[in-house]
Write a structure and sequence with these properties.
This protein is an alpha+beta fold and 177 residues long. It has one domain: Cyclic phosphodiesterase (Cyclic Phosphodiesterase, Chain: A, Alpha-Beta Complex), CATH 3.90.1140. Strands 2-6-5-4-7 form a 5-stranded antiparallel beta sheet, covered by helices on one side. A hairpin with a 2-residue loop joins strand 8 and strand 9. The radius of gyration is 17 Å and the shape is globular. The relative contact order is 0.28.
């Protein structure tokens, strides 16, 4: 099973982001834009996990020590990927989110999971393989991005799969923090 641990977003944030994504899409020639139901912030990508190891992931999640906290989303960013871009919304520096990531990383690694070895840069992906129109004004689009904050009180284990050709994320376990 292809799995990751994430922070899922509330409906209000998803509504704002869906409107913003439609504006980015209107300014693009092509791209794969994140569907409303798939909007999330990845904490740890696990990849393919055998069913017998899922209990280890759940146990690591259950051992997280954190209190609910406020998360702020802001700013439009992108990574250049050989002629196209991955667009994302930034996460303002958040010690609590970083602490949860570090705890998960330590617990999962000690349970035998091999995780990506790169710095944790939390962001919310809104489009992949995006090619914008020649007249695209990124600064102008960024101005319509409303400030967004939400209370984070749980983390979720998510399954990633293709259902009828669509990338679908399904929550299979939740832990309140």
């Amino acid at each position: 099973m292809r799995l990751f641990i994430a922070v899922n977003l509330n409906d209000e944030i998803k509504d704002h982001l869906t409107k913003f994504i439609s504006q980015l899409k209107a300014n693009s020639i092509k791209g794969n834009f994140t569907r409303r139901e798939n909007l999330h912030i990845t904490l740890v990508f696990l990849g393919e996990v055998p069913k017998e190891n899922i209990s280890l992931v759940k146990q690591a999640m259950e051992e997280i020590q954190s209190a609910p906290f406020q998360l702020s989303l802001s700013g439009l960013g992108s990574f250049d990927r050989r002629g196209d871009h991955l667009y994302w919304i930034g996460i303002e520096g958040c010690k609590s989110l970083n602490d949860i990531y570090q705890q998960l990383r330590e617990k999962l690694t000690s349970s035998g999971f091999v995780l990506e070895n790169r710095p944790f840069n939390p962001h919310l992906t809104i489009g992949r393989q995006v090619v914008t129109r020649p007249d695209f004004d990124r600064a102008k689009l960024t101005q319509i991005l409303p400030p967004m904050k939400m209370e984070i009180s749980k983390i979720s284990l998510m399954k990633s799969e293709r259902i009828e050709g669509k990338l679908t994320y399904t929550e299979i376990h939740t832990v309140n923090i």
